[in-house]
Design a protein that fits this description.
The complex is a heterodimer of chains A (about 80) and B (about 375).
Chain A: H1 5-25, H2 41-53, H3 64-71, E1 74-75
Chain B: E1 14-19, H1 28-43, E2 49-52, E3 60-65, E4 81-85, E5 96-99, E6 104-105, E7 111-112, H2 113-124, H3 154-164, E8 199-203, E9 206-211, E10 214-219, E11 226-229, H4 230-233, E12 243-247, E13 252-257, E14 260-265, E15 268-269, E16 275-276, E17 291-295, E18 300-305, E19 308-313, E20 318-319, E21 325-326, H5 327-330, E22 340-344, E23 347-352, E24 355-360, E25 365-371
Parallel strand pairs in B: 1-2, 1-3, 3-5, 6-7
Antiparallel strand pairs in B: 4-5, 8-9, 9-10, 10-11, 12-13, 13-14, 14-15, 14-16, 17-18, 18-19, 19-20, 19-21, 22-23, 23-24, 24-25
Helix pairs in contact in B: 1-2
Classes of the chains: A mainly alpha (about 80), B alpha+beta (about 375).
Chain lengths: ~80, ~375
């Protein structure tokens, strides 16, 4: 089924965010970014970690500043160690 | 600033680098110049020196590549990831890779090679990413940085000097890592089939194998262990240790000789030591410890003496009731007496003479018997 433009855009952003957090912040690979949890869940935790590390406002939300930062060119070495 | 887990760093102050290939975006001399300038930033604030080689192996190999390039971490086309680099070590470790799908430039019209090289080579020297946005080691590329005015931030300087010291200090300064001991006829050989160990302990992710006045320092990231004098790291410690263990929850290594024990945190000896082993709760009949290991999960330390063992609760700082017990009763398959023991990957590794017993504490059985120097890939 072809997705409409909006859904496709949201899906690709989610995939991008998930891959970014997996690659640079050790988000577990099987984490479902779409699943909403009362405590925020691992994606929100990782967003907070990323925002704190990169000096952004720590909201746990995928705001425009956070998304802009994720799209900036950067070094490929992860920001957090195993 | 931060360093990589296990704090890998070069054990020598003179390093070689080799430019393996060139981007077509820039003349070759512009690439050479960018790399040279990037290395000189780090050279200025450390005792490190660099020389270029154009053939054979080099400590730091620099290459341009696109997409998959043989290291399981493919580049991603134009934008996003500009490069990556590996912490100090042999082979691929220390190398810096640049994504040749970027438009590399001398100025900031594209991606400035000098700025990215200076950052990546910081990784090659052992620096991890910094959370300080002013630092060169901040992970995000800043297109507004003027390459002509680039200086290391205070954070970068503090980071690199935490690994190598400053350029003005003498080689005797403890901030400068001791040079490894060259093997000689009087020193033990790592691959001697009859080698036995006095004591073994982990330390911040590495494993230390003590023998007489020396120890081998093995990182799981590197194949070759380093070989050092105990006194070069800890001048106040004795040689010929009996036992050692790391309490990872306190970041302290305790070492034992005779009826005394010492505590060190990194390279710092802790005040108030040596103490008598009897302050731990051993009876006066115990004169020395053969081996010791800290169980990270249970926060308990096992002390092995002859064919018996005691268990010490690190939380309550007291010896547990019901001990000593016979080693053979609770560690079936382990020889009657042990020289050394440490915990890794959830197993206890017991050493006796030239043999090693991998013991699974959950299954309560020996899962493998190995040569004791297999950790050195002999």
């Amino acid at each position: 089924y072809p997705l409409n433009g909006a859904a496709r855009k949201e899906g690709s952003t989610t995939d991008f965010v998930q891959q970014y957090l997996e690659r640079y912040y050790n988000l577990a690979k099987d984490t479902k970014a779409f699943v909403r949890r009362r405590d925020g869940g691992p994606v929100v935790d990782k967003l907070r970690e990323m925002q704190k590390f990169l000096g952004l406002e720590v909201t746990g939300k995928l705001d425009s500043d956070t998304l802009d930062m994720m799209h900036k060119p950067r070094c490929g070495v992860p920001d957090v160690g195993d | 600033f931060a360093t990589f887990p296990g704090m890998p760093k070069w054990r020598k102050t003179h390093l070689t680098y080799r430019v393996m290939n060139y981007t077509l975006d820039l003349p070759r001399d512009a690439v050479d110049s960018a790399i040279e300038k990037a290395l000189s930033l780090w050279e200025e604030v450390t005792p490190l020196t660099f020389s270029r080689t154009d053939e054979g192996e080099a400590d730091i190999k620099i290459l341009f590549a696109v997409r998959d390039h043989g290291d399981f971490i493919p580049f991603d086309g134009p934008g996003k990831v500009l490069g990556h680099a590996y912490p100090p070590g042999p082979g691929i470790y220390g190398d810096a890779h640049f994504d040749d799908d970027e438009q590399w430039t001398r100025d900031t019209s594209g991606t400035n090679l000098f700025l990215v090289a200076a950052h990546e080579l910081g990784h090659s020297l052992g620096l991890f990413h910094s959370a300080d946005p002013r630092a060169l080691m901040y992970p995000v590329y800043n297109a507004h940085t003027d390459p002509a005015r680039l200086r290391l931030s205070q954070d970068d300087v503090a980071g690199i000097q935490s690994l190598y010291g400053s350029p003005s200090v003498s080689p005797d300064d403890p901030a400068v890592p001791p040079e490894p001991v060259p093997p000689g006829p009087e020193t033990p050989a790592a691959c001697d089939p009859n080698l036995s160990f006095d004591a073994i302990s982990t330390l911040r992710g590495e494993i230390l194998f003590f023998k007489d006045r020396h120890f081998w320092r093995k990182s799981l990231r590197t194949l070759e262990p380093g070989f050092y004098l105990i006194s070069s790291f800890w001048p106040s410690l004795p040689s010929g240790l009996d036992a050692a263990y790391e309490d990872t929850s306190k970041d302290i290594v305790f070492v034992f000789k005779g009826n005394q024990f010492w505590a060190v945190k990194g390279t710092e000896a802790q005040a108030g030591y040596p103490k008598s082993i009897h302050t731990l709760g051993f009876p006066s009949t115990v004169r020395k410890i053969d081996a010791a290991v800290f169980d990270k999960e249970k926060k308990k330390t096992y002390f092995f003496v002859g064919d018996k063992y005691w268990r010490f609760d690190e939380n309550s700082q007291s010896m547990e009731q019901g001990f000593p017990r016979l080693i053979v009763d609770d560690f079936p398959g382990v020889e009657l007496k042990v020289d050394a023991v440490f915990q890794e990957f959830g197993f206890f590794y017991f050493f006796r003479g030239s043999l090693q017993f991998e013991f699974d504490p959950d299954a309560r059985m020996v899962t493998r018997t190995l040569k004791n120097n297999n950790w050195f890939y002999c």
